[in-house]
Fold each of these.
Amino acid sequence: MTEHDAERHAQDADIDSDPDEPGVEMRDANTKAGVAPVDGNAVVTLSGGQDSSTCLFYALQVYNEVAAVTFDYDQRHGAAEITAARKIARQADVPHTVLRMNTLAELGDAALTNAEIPVEAEATAIGGNTFAAERGLPSTFVPGRNLLLLGAAAAWGLPRGYDNLVTGVCAADAAGYPDCRLEFVTALNEAISLATDTPTFAIDAPLIHRTKAETWKLADDLGVLQFIRFGTHTCYEGAHDDEHKHDWGFGCGECPACDERRRGWEAFDRARTIKR
Ligand SMILES: [Zn+2]
């Protein structure tokens, strides 16, 4: 990202929406959301997007102590993401750490870490993300991203007493990233337990089999729907201002991330309108 882009994104990221204060409707949320409390502490990987932010409020219902970690890896929509993550952590009243992981941008060429590469649902090989193209994956795919990021989150959390790691990875996402599948999460859980000699270490991925509509429903059940709707950032282009405000939140409305968020919202909204 160029300096100019970063500046523009930082301006775009200036969220002046007025999301509902979390905590207001949360009293009976754990029964409503069907989540059982766990006697332990959890670190949540918080990107500032819909999924990870919903996971943060889920974690607050489930675990004793909760902290959030956000990664700065020169990602395409980084300034908007990190600004959103800071605000969300503040409103959820949890300790928040931003970890620099810019090595990711040096490792390979993906649209997520190189603004020259276009965001495509399926990568094109020439002049783009060849590794992703060979595997039929989106151009945003960064090989090893969740391996490194979740490993870093565990490495940050374990010495600080957070034996659980909550992540918003979702196998049902249209992107189909291999490091968002249950098999990967299960294997990584085992690997981190072994690597750190911590048999109690557990990765909790509450969204792994949820559709986006079901994730909206979880936010509703947790009592934070309005907050997730207008307080989180998903768009790959960093669009986050009044000109880019929709029923489903902020975004350019065109990129794959916006498209998925919008379609999920519409399915959720239809279902609850029918129920009423
Ligand atoms: Zn977008």
Amino acid sequence: MGGTSGFLESLSRLAAAGRVRAATRALDDPRAVGARRERALATLLGAAAAPAGEAGGASYLQPIPPVPIPGAVQMPEIMAHLRATLPADAIVTNGAGNYSAWCNRFYSYRSFRSQLAPTSGSMGYGLPAAVAAKLEHPDRPVVCFAGDGCFQMTGQELATACQYRLPIIVLVFDNGMYGTIRMHQEREYPTRVFATELQNPDFVALARAHGANGTRITRTEDFAPAFANALEADRPTLLEITIDPEAITPRQSLSQIRAAALAKQAD
Ligand SMILES: Cc1ncc(C[n+]2csc(CCOP(=O)(O)OP(=O)(O)O)c2C)c(N)n1
Ligand SMILES: [Mg+2]
């Protein structure tokens, strides 16, 4: 499995041949529409999956196989639903936090300029980015991924979304903590939890107070109908998704991280 490195190798080969630059420039050209745009896209994506780069190319483009996570909400299934439901031109936004692994690793971005995310890793970016994206592209679905901590940084922008009646969809991943920081605490100082728990508002009630739609998702099967309603809505929708605190990463539970760190200390 070459994974990301194989993909990068493929891109480097192309870059060496001067083709990445040409294709990227073609995509940046506003006149690059229709067949011209498709050709440029095919150069980049097709080459990434070309046989010489098979080490990573083709496998990189495959969805990551899902592994069940703790709790009644199975994010791998929800991400599969989003991949199947959202059109290629949907815009997905996020801030920073462990929740963002879901959209960064389990969503397939199929066209350029379909992701808005901070390279600086700043929390709170997703919601204002979604507002801006929907204003600019009213015909494209816009979905914001936000952790509970992340949402609390800029959640008041829901007022802006309501003021301009922007039917964005905000997924708030409620695990009751600054999960990323808790993960590092458990890795470096197992059992010494400090200032990472969050007492959250009722996000659904908060959304409704703003004039947005709000629904709580506590089971995987609640998601698809709520998301379908959100896609049809004439105003913002906030879906508060209850995440088991144990489900700290797509692959490792909080207890596993703690146990591994304790075992390392005991060595
Ligand atoms: C503005 C800002 N403050 C602090 C941080 C440091 N930081 C990175 S992730 C994180 C916690 C994120 O919590 P949450 O949004 O609830 O996501 P989770 O990790 O729980 O999924 C913090 C405090 C940051 N990246 N940006
Ligand atoms: Mg959180």
Amino acid sequence: MENVIDEYREEGIKLTPQRIAIIDYLKGNKEHPSADDIYRAVKERFPTMSFATVYNTLGLLVARGKVVRISIDSVKMRFDPDNNPHHHLICSSCRRIDDICGDFGLGPPECLPEDYIVTGHHVEFYGICPDCNKTPGRSASRVPIKEGCHEKA
Ligand SMILES: [Zn+2]
Ligand SMILES: [Zn+2]
């Protein structure tokens, strides 16, 4: 995300103040915000900004690999400005997403077709975050977590 604004200027991509505000909001953001979170945060500075602006800007950033779409939250798509490969941990109570930057030593399984080109992998963990664990009554899962063959209940 660091040089996104300079890069886009050099390439002649139109950067409105709203777009710059969205990029600034995302820079170094560890919250894995949804499009709605971004919209609400940036709208405070630009009350006339439309949701479409957030959506289009995210589309541009994702297409250029500056922001990664995260599908770990079954309720809404989340976005990650950290495009270095890493894994995610989601709290099934408050939906907080944390980064996991470990190497699990995972390689492509032998059962894959021989000519299949694997370009990456992503491991998702589900659990209860320390904050929810400390709060009585919050540790129960309020929103069903994503059903998946890789999920351990
Ligand atoms: Zn939590
Ligand atoms: Zn992340």
Amino acid sequence: MFRYAVPHLNDTRPGDCDPVLRRYLGDLRRKDAGMIDFYYWTTPNGHKVTLFLEESGVPYRILPIDISRGAQFGPDFLAVAPNNRIPAIVDTAPADGGPVIPIFESGAILLYLAEKTGQFLPTDLRGRTEVLTWLFWQMGGLGPMAGQNHHFSIYAPERIPYATERYVRETGRLYAVLDRRLADRTFVAGESYSIADMAIYPWIVPWHAQQQDLSAHSNLRRWFDAIGARPATKRAYALADTISTRGTLHDAEPRRILFGPPA
Ligand SMILES: N[C@@H](CCC(=O)N[C@@H](CS)C(=O)NCC(=O)O)C(=O)O
């Protein structure tokens, strides 16, 4: 369940969204009916969190942060996410009854939401450890390597064969690790869908752009198709389509904002 707090933020220029965020950042003790405020843009790291929110049914509202227009550098967003990256959330009704809690880093967000809701993270020692292992595998491996793959394959202003080949090859190695892992289990951490799967799936969606071949990885393909068929996954990606400004990252100004050098 979601609602848009500020749908017009697709048209935001740097700083324009600050008054919206300031509404509650001005009073960190304010509560807002159990709503998760979700600072989102339509990227793989953003999709991780919509996958969780749509699966779990936690009430949330979207605050779009158009990273191609510099909204991630607004001072109020930085108060929530000092690393100036999406995704970030604010839990307006934490379980301890205290002030609102801001959280950034997609892995920390998934873990927080899993613990808050008691969903998609086993409570037994071994099951929990497996999920966290594969969650951190994504955060430290697949995400950064595939991210650099995207950068050098798609966005870099010049072709640097050494860099492109290194990250394409490393992405391929990680796909093979995942394929072997999925040979004898339904999901990456066993028989239950978990936050580890939610972290990994959005980074496999652009497999073609990453110069990978899913048909060479039958276990991974089966897992990928199964997650893609989940109603919550369809809702999460349909939501992205209502916000996306696909293609803008190829324009000069978004490229300067995202890839520098700083102004
Ligand atoms: N490790 C971070 C990475 C977040 C990240 O890189 N977010 C990108 C979009 S996927 C972003 O906000 N980029 C904005 C920028 O580079 O200025 C996480 O998992 O949350």
